[in-house]
Amino acid sequence: MPSVIYVAIGLPGFIRCPVDANPPLTLVKWKKDGLPLRIDKYPGWSQMDDGSIRVAEVTEDSLGTYTCMPYNALGSMGWSPPAPLVLTDPPKFSVVPGGEYRQEAGRELVIPCEAEGDPFPNITWRKVGKPSKSKHNVLPRGNLQLKSLTKDDHGEWECVATNVATSITASTHVQVIGTFTHSTHVKTYHYTVLLSCF
């Protein structure tokens, strides 16, 4: 068991009993606050095939200290160390990026993205698809700074806010002006006309 179980209040959550069993796992027993856990007493709770507990919506009913005992065909190694469950606030965006940003090649572009939560989320940015080779920074509040835009910056970008509870994503599109060459293709057709005289 992890030393602390973090779950986001108001969202689905899992209480996991990490097991590496050979032969495979056959059963996992649980205790909550030192007493056998009766999952059927908690609406929206279920036990998964891997022994984890799935909570449909995490509430204060989830608070407690959990231990698990995994079994396989050879028996069990005993109860895991107790792990308290801590409720966290999932991250939520306080500022989201707009749908699209257009800027000329060689110029700077700053795209806003800020989030809050408990614990406070970490914000990272990633380019979808082909990674950008150009220099970009995540500013202290989470905004993306693209210095001297190049054609590598063109495309979909995602702002990802993560804390111990979960991750959330907001996306935007960057269009870099002046980086694409336009070519004209001319198709020529040759016709042969056969004239006959009678």
TrEMBL record:
Q: Which Pfam families match?
A: I-set, Ig_3
User: InterPro entries, alphabetically?
Assistant: Ig-like_dom, Ig-like_dom_sf, Ig-like_fold, Ig_I-set, Ig_sub, Ig_sub2, Neural/epithelial_adhesion
Q: Where is the Ig-like domain?
A: 1-68, 91-175
Family annotation (SMART domains): IG, IGc2
Name the UniProt key words of this record, in alphabetical order: Disulfide bond, Immunoglobulin domain, Repeat, Signal
* Protein name (database record): Protein turtle B
Source organism (scientific name) = Characodon lateralis
> What gene is this protein a product of?
IGSF9B_3
